[in-house]
Design a protein that fits this description.
Helix content is 47%, strand content 7%. By secondary structure, it is mainly alpha-helical. The chain has one domain. A two-stranded antiparallel ribbon has the order 1-2. Strand 1 and strand 2 form a beta hairpin. The chain is extended and about 60 Å long.
């Protein structure tokens, strides 16, 4: 991930404090645990209804409870520079050996390179 951020000229700030890690883990457990239960209580069983529930109820409820208003209102968002190919940057890259028969193996499958 840091390679992507470097290409985008984004500084990464590592946070190693146990308190922050604990908050994130508690937050993830909250989403994993409560979200599924809340959807079950509402009888939600398909993606369309789940997305509607997320956007109309669950996300606003969590934002009211956990959101913190930023004191600095400066907009730090920026566009991706035009010279960067976002499809190449935001892709999963793996190394593979090209065999003599122009095949590679990935996830126990063979692929023919034309």
């Amino acid at each position: 991930m840091e390679k992507v951020f470097k290409k985008l000229n984004v500084n990464v700030i590592h946070v190693d404090s146990p308190q922050v890690k604990g908050r994130v883990e508690r937050s993830f457990k909250t989403y994993q645990d409560r979200l599924v239960k809340d959807m079950g209580v509402k009888g939600i069983s398909n993606i369309k209804d789940a997305n509607k529930f997320l956007h109309s109820y669950y996300i606003p409820k969590n934002n009211r409870k956990f959101a913190v208003i930023d004191k600095d209102k400066t907009n730090l968002y920026t566009s991706i520079p035009k010279h960067l190919d976002s499809d190449r940057i935001f892709s999963i890259k793996n190394k593979a050996c090209l065999r003599n028969d122009f095949t590679i193996q990935y996830n126990n499958k063979f692929y023919q390179i034309l």
